[in-house]
Amino acid sequence: MKIISVVGRKNSGKTTLIERMIPLFRAQGLAVAVIKHDAHDFSIDQKGKDTWRFRQAGADEVVIASSSQVAHMRRLEAPIEVADILSRLESPDLVILEGYKRLGFPKLVVLRDAAELADMGLERESTVIGFVLRRTPNANPPDSRVPRFWADEVDRIAGFVLDKLGAAAVGRRS
After folding, report:
1. What are phi and psi of 87, to 5 degrees?
2. Residue partners of 18: CB distance under 8 A and separation at least 6
């Protein structure tokens, strides 16, 4: 299993980049999983629906399953470790983490502006493998030996990720 983090500030384009890379990875035969970090308390439940009612009644875990998908909700006493989440996945070839900038996985840093890099505390982070910036008139890529890409160069970015992780050879699904 190969793992990469896509990190950046809110509204920097992380989700869009991941969304656009997934079909390219799938076209290479890779099974892809995405784990999104949410700093806020999210809910996938809808008020009044059965699963919401079970959780409101105090269930520690609720699973909803159909013939084509499953969702598992569990109350946590402490933040869950990424290693625990990874151990529950069905052997994907590639896992994309959205967020988790402090973990030691290779990182693509998505920036609106090069100045954000220092604000994020990643300017000297050895796990940064590339920078992705929006193509704007004032775009100023970081001065770095790390490769830099424009956000619209998705094919190039995806190819770089596969090469960097050595993931191209592990694909087995279509």
Report:
1. -65, -20
2. 6, 34, 96, 98
Provide the 3-class DSSP secondary structure of residue 63: strand
Domain ranges for the chain? 2-43+78-170
Percent helix, strand and coil across the chain, each rounded to 5?
Answer: 30, 25, 50
pLDDT tens-digit series, residues 117-167: 777 777 667 889 999 988 775 666 666 788 999 999 999 999 999 999 986
Do residues 141 and 148 make contact, with C-beta atoms less than 8 angstroms apart? Answer: yes
Which CATH superfamily includes the segment(s) 2-43+78-170? P-loop containing nucleotide triphosphate hydrolases (3.40.50.300)
Q: Give the integer Cα–Cα distance in Å for 5 and 98.
A: 6
Q: CA-CA distances (angstroms) from residue 68 to 1, 12, 64, 72?
A: 24, 32, 11, 14
Tokens of 127: 């796990």
d(CA 157, CA 17) in angstroms, rounded, equals: 9
pLDDT in tens, 20-49: 999 999 999 999 999 999 877 777 778 999
